[in-house]
Design a protein that fits this description.
Blueprint: H1 2-16, H2 29-65, H3 71-103, H4 112-156, H5 163-171, H6 175-180, H7 189-225, H8 227-261
Helix pairs in contact: 1-4, 2-3, 2-4, 3-4, 3-7, 4-7, 4-8
Length: 284
């Protein structure tokens, strides 16, 4: 993939140049190797976050299916949540660092290596936002289902609450205050225990959401600012299919011409010669 993107960027650079342009040389190999090592580390972090989201969803399902929250499951959930936070911070910080380096480039013309770096950075930033959005959606779904369980338990006791009333109770954040409002409704201990457990689940979840909020907004704004770069990359990827097909066709023509040129009685058509044959590789 990296080599393919390199080819796309180099091809695009050639198409943008006029005959009088002087091609700016690519940075020394060791600098690009260091950059690609960073890119691979970010990609690995994002992939691990994606894997952990699957585990988070499984644990959410276990918690919702049990009347009360099991401590072992809660510990597992906390461990995976902390791992996601650690990986996300690592990916965010590295993406921001690369962004600052790229922004400090003041050259009038952008060299091939800068093009490659911007493309890779834009692709990973977009991927990061997609994965974190997926995580946020899983959190919101779990919160809604937990709130639904509380509402059903209250309905069983004959205490009906609207969404607005329940949200006000949850926003208090204090379990004692929350349960005090429903103690006089003749609710059973089992139902009360489940309501308290769901309330604690929601409080833990909201704390996690708040911790990730600023980071998510930070990277989302970064991707928004790079929208044109991402669109250009996707356009180049679509065009590359046509480029390759044309290149293959031209190569076949060249091979056929070379084969015919070896025949003793070859008749050279006007306007064509062996030295004049060129393969028509795409330049735009």
């Amino acid at each position: 993939l990296l080599n393919f993107l390199l080819w796309l960027c180099m091809s695009k650079q050639k198409s943008d140049q006029t005959p009088d342009d002087v091609e700016i040389p690519v940075e020394k190999k060791e600098f690009m190797d260091e950059f690609f090592a960073q890119i691979e580390e970010i990609r690995t972090s994002i992939d691990k976050i994606d894997e952990n989201i699957g585990e988070i969803k499984r644990l959410y399902s276990v918690i919702l299916s049990a009347p009360t929250s099991d401590q072992k499951t809660q510990d597992e959930l906390e461990a995976v949540t902390n791992e996601i936070k650690k990986l996300a911070n690592n990916a965010r910080n590295k993406l921001k660092s690369i962004e600052q380096i790229l922004a400090s480039n003041t050259e009038e013309r952008v060299s091939a290596d800068i093009r490659i770096k911007k493309s890779q950075h834009a692709i990973l930033a977009k991927r990061f936002v997609e994965v974190m959005t997926k995580y946020n959606e899983a959190q919101v779904e779990f919160r809604d289902k937990s709130k639904g369980r509380i509402q059903r338990q209250l309905e069983i006791t004959g205490k009906t609450t609207t969404d607005e009333e329940l949200e006000e109770m949850l926003d208090g954040g204090n379990a004692a205050v929350f349960t005090a409002g429903i103690m006089d409704s003749g609710i059973s201990k089992q139902a009360l225990s489940e309501i308290e457990a769901r309330h604690k689940d929601i409080m833990r979840l909201e704390s996690s959401i708040k911790e990730l909020h600023d980071m998510f907004v930070d990277i989302a704004m970064l991707v928004e600012n790079q929208g044109s770069i991402i669109e250009r990359i996707e356009s180049n990827m679509d065009q590359s299919v046509g480029f390759v097909e044309r290149a293959v066709a031209d190569t076949k023509k060249a091979a056929k011409f070379q084969q015919e040129a070896r025949r003793p009685n070859l008749v050279i058509q006007p306007g064509f010669s062996r030295s004049g044959w060129k393969t028509s590789w795409p330049t735009s």
